[in-house]
C-alpha cells in the first residue's frame, strides 16, 4: 500500500496557546512533501487567535471553530469529520512536527504494508523547545517495526504527536471516546492495532512540549484523582482485546502496580483534597504498589499503621516544609 500526500490531512487542535500555535501550524505547512492542513479551534477564550492565524498563514490553511466547546477528545472527533481525506494526523497547538513527518509516514506505509496506524519517534521538549536531558531518544537497530497489541498493554505505545491514522476505520470504531478523562488516545490506538495493525518508524518525526506545571491538562486529571483509575480501566480494555485474539491474560493488580507505582508525593500533595472514596482508593493503591526504594517502603508501612489519618498529617507537614523552602 502506498499513501499519497493528497490523502493526508494534518489537523492542529487549538484552544488558547497563543504563544506556540505559530510554530505548530508552520511545522505542518513546511513539510518536505506538502499535505492538507486545517486548524480546529475548540471554542477557545481568545477570539483573536483566529485572525492571528489566518492573517499569518492565509489560504494555506482552513480554519474551523466549534460553536461550543467539545473537550479534548470531542475536538479530535471534529478533526476526523472535517479532514476530508483518508489519513489524518492530529497535532496539538503546543507541539510541532519535523519537516520529514509526512515523508516518513509515506515511506513507512510502503515498508510495513497495510496498517491502520503509523507513527514515528517523538521527543519531549520544555517550554523553550529544549529536549529534557532524561528524554533523549535511545538508539535503535531497526528502520521500522510492526507494533503488536501487547505493546499497548501497559500504556499508550507512543507519546503525542507524530501519528497517522486511517480515518475510515477510526470512524467505524466510533471515533474517540468523548467522555474519557485521560485515555481516549490510548484506547483508540489499542483498538486500531487490534483491528488492522500498526507500525513505527525509527525516524524522529515530532516534538512533544511537556509543561510540567500543575496547570497542564493531564496534571488537572492527576489532581482530580482520575488518572490512575481510568488508566486501570483502559488496561483492562486492552486485556479484553488480547483475549479476543486468543491471548489469555487476566487482570493482575500487583503486576499492574509494578509498572504504575502510585507516587507517594501524589498522596502528600493531593490526597486530602480528593473525594473520600478516591482518597481511600489511592491509599489502597499505594499499599499494594511495588516499592521502588526504601523510603517508599517506609512510607507504606507508616500508612499501614496510621491509615488515612497519618496521610492527612503527613500531607500537612509536607506542604508546610515545601512552603518554607
Describe it for me?
The chain has about 325 residues and is of the alpha/beta class. The protein has 2 domains: about 200 residues, Spore Coat Polysaccharide Biosynthesis Protein SpsA, Chain A (Alpha-Beta Complex), CATH 3.90.550; about 110 residues, no CATH class. It is built from 12 helices and 9 strands. Strands 1, 2, 3, 4, 5, 6, 7, 8 and 9 form a 9-stranded mixed beta sheet that branches. Helix 1 packs parallel to helix 2 and helix 10 packs parallel to helix 12.
From the helix content, strand content and strand pairing, which structural class follows? alpha/beta
Helicity range of the residues?
A: 40-55%
Report how far the terminal alpha carbons are from each other.
Answer: 59 Å
Q: Specify the number of helices.
A: 12
Number of domains: 2
Determine Rg (CA atoms, Å).
21 Å
Mean pLDDT: 90
Poorly predicted runs: none
In the CATH hierarchy, what is the superfamily of the largest domain? Spore Coat Polysaccharide Biosynthesis Protein SpsA, Chain A
CATH topology of the largest domain: Spore Coat Polysaccharide Biosynthesis Protein SpsA, Chain A
What is the oligomer described by this structure? single chain
Which terms would index this structure?
46% helix; 12 helices; 17% strand; globular; 2 domains; 325 residues; Spore Coat Polysaccharide Biosynthesis Protein SpsA, Chain A; 9 strands
Amino acid at each position: 500500500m502506498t499513501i499519497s500526500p493528497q490523502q493526508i490531512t494534518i489537523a492542529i487542535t487549538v484552544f488558547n496557546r497563543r504563544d506556540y500555535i505559530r510554530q505548530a501550524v508552520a511545522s505542518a505547512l513546511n513539510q518536505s512533501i506538502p499535505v492538507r492542513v486545517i486548524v480546529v479551534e475548540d471554542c477557545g477564550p481568545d477570539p483573536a487567535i483566529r485572525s492571528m492565524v489566518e492573517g499569518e498563514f492565509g489560504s494555506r490553511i482552513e480554519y474551523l471553530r466549534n460553536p461550543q466547546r467539545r473537550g479534548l477528545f470531542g475536538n479530535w472527533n471534529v478533526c476526523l469529520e472535517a479532514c476530508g481525506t483518508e489519513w489524518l494526523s492530529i497535532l496539538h497547538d503546543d507541539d510541532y512536527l519535523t519537516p520529514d513527518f509526512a515523508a516518513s509516514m509515506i515511506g513507512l506505509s510502503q515498508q510495513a504494508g497495510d496498517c491502520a496506524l503509523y507513527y514515528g519517534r517523538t521527543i519531549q521538549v520544555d517550554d523553550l523547545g529544549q529536549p529534557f536531558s532524561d528524554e533523549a531518544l535511545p538508539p535503535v537497530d531497526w528502520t521500522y517495526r510492526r507494533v503488536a497489541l501487547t505493546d499497548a498493554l501497559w500504556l499508550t505505545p507512543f507519546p503525542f504527536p507524530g501519528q497517522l491514522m486511517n480515518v475510515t476505520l477510526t470512524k467505524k470504531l466510533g471515533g474517540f471516546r468523548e467522555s474519557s478523562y485521560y485515555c481516549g488516545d490510548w484506547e483508540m490506538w489499542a483498538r486500531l492495532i487490534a483491528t488492522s495493525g500498526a507500525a513505527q518508524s525509527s525516524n524522529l518525526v515530532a516534538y512533544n512540549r511537556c509543561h510540567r506545571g500543575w496547570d497542564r491538562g493531564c496534571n488537572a486529571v492527576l489532581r482530580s484523582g482520575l488518572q490512575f483509575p481510568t488508566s486501570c480501566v483502559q488496561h483492562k480494555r486492552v486485556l479484553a482485546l488480547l483475549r479476543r485474539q486468543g491471548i489469555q491474560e487476566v487482570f493482575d493488580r500487583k503486576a499492574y502496580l509494578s509498572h504504575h507505582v502510585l507516587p507517594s508525593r501524589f498522596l502528600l500533595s493531593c490526597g486530602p483534597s480528593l473525594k473520600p472514596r478516591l482518597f481511600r482508593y489511592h491509599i489502597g493503591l499505594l499499599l499494594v504498589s511495588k516499592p521502588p526504594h526504601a523510603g517508599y517502603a517506609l512510607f507504606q508501612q507508616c500508612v499501614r499503621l496510621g491509615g488515612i489519618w497519618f496521610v492527612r498529617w503527613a500531607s500537612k507537614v509536607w506542604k508546610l516544609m515545601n512552603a518554607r523552602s
